[in-house]
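Feature request, filed as a ticket because there's no other form

It would be nice if the structure record came with a short human-readable summary line next to the C-alpha cells. Right now we just get the raw output. Example of a typical job, pasted below so the devs can see what we mean:
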Amino acid sequence: MLATLGVPFDPDAASYAVDTAVESGQPLIVANVTQLEPLPMSLRLGYDALEEFTPEVTESVKRPVELASSLGIPVERIRVRSPRPIRALIQLVTERGVGLLVFGPDRSRMSARSYRRAVEALRDGATCLVWVAPDPA
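Raw output as currently delivered:
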C-alpha cells in the first residue's frame, strides 16, 4: 500500500511502492487519507465526496496508479476522509491485510512535527512493515 495524507507523493516513495508491487506480483493499493472536519453540514452538502484538494495532489495520486497499471499490476485507488486520518489509515491497513505500507507524503508539504507524529503512530499501530523515505538531509 502506498499512502499519503492529502499532499502529493514523494517521488521516491511512489517509485518504491510500484517497484515492490511489480517484484512481488502483488496488487497495489494507493490511498490518499485526508482529514474530514466533523461538520454535519459538510456531509449533507457532499463535501465528503469531493476530489482531492488540488490538481497537483490528484495528478500525484494518478501517476503511480497509471504506472503500476501499465506494468500489469492490479491497482486500487482509495480516498479516505476521516476526522482522525492516521487512525483511519491504520484501520485500512489492518482490514486489507497489507504486508508493506509505503508512507509516502512529500515531506516539504507537511510540517516536520505532523510528519514525525504520523510516522511514530504508524510504526506503533500498523500490523505490517512500514517504509518511509530516508531523511533528505
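Something like this underneath would help us a lot:
The two ends are 25 Å apart (CA to CA).
The domain at 2-132 is CATH 3.40.50.620 (Rossmann fold).
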